[in-house]
Amino acid sequence: MNRIIAVVNQKGGVGKTTTSINLAAGLAIFEKKTLLIDFDPQGNCSSGLGIERENPNIYEVIIGKSSLEQVTKTSPVLEKLDIAPANMDLSGAEVELVKEYSREYKLKEALGSMADIYDFILIDCPPSLGLLTVNALTAATDVIIPIQCEYYALEGVSQLLTTIRLIKKDLNPNLEILGILLTMYDRRLNLSHQVAKEVKRYFLEKVFSTIIHRNVKLGEAPSFEKSIFHYDIKSTGSKNYLNLAKEVIAL
Q1: CA dihedral in degrees (192, 193, 199, 204; nearest 10)?
Q2: What's the N-to-C CA distance of the chain in angstroms?
Q3: Domain residue ranges of the chain, discontinuous segments joined by +
Q4: pLDDT tens-digit profile of 132-191?
Q5: Tag placement on the chain: N or C end, fewer CB within 10 Å?
Q6: Fold exhibited by the domain 3-244
Q7: How many angstroms separate the CA atoms of 37 and 16, rounded?
Q8: How far apart are CA 31 and CA 8, in angstroms?
Q9: What is the value of pTM for the model shown?
Q10: 88/92 Cα distance (integer angstroms)
Q11: Residue 82 — φ and ψ, nearest 5°?
């Protein structure tokens, strides 16, 4: 069965979009047909992979003006990777959907039979627990939660876990946490070691074996509209995300 994975954390700056871009690209490199849905109004997944953010995009899909197939674009460098782009128009969907019937299911309905085309669908969620994130969690089979190895790393995670439990109880009984991903790890810092130890103690076997190390190349790649693999295949970030892709495929 294909996996629909929501990459979610209501905190910004935790490596969520970086993970969405490079995990999707890594899965495609391993010949897995992959769709990356940019579900953040900032549209950084789209621009980070060289995809124009013009209309129509995922906003038109959510409000019912376009189909997902109509807005989906194929990566210019990876045949197995498709992207459904987003732009700031998507921010209006939070307001527009409030009055809609079954508003939590709009993304799930939009996926429809298209979900069967892909081995993996990744959804890059906005840094909030609003209606867009609820739609993503309702459509997903699994969740990946990036947690940065920095001070206050676990702040707000309990609220996210509560939201996931409520979605599982009321809207999507099949939703599971696929894994907790440690990001921005700096082996030179005691703080990184302490945070990693605390996260593993709390989440046990749910923590991915792969750790994403702090790496300058990961920060540079989006400005060149490339995944880390096409920007610097020999970098630590490239090795980390290839390992993560292998781990996700094996689960």
Answers
A1: 150
A2: 12
A3: 3-244
A4: 999 999 999 999 999 988 877 777 788 899 999 999 999 999 999 999 999 999 888 888
A5: N
A6: Rossmann fold (3.40.50)
A7: 13
A8: 25
A9: 0.93
A10: 8
A11: -110, 150
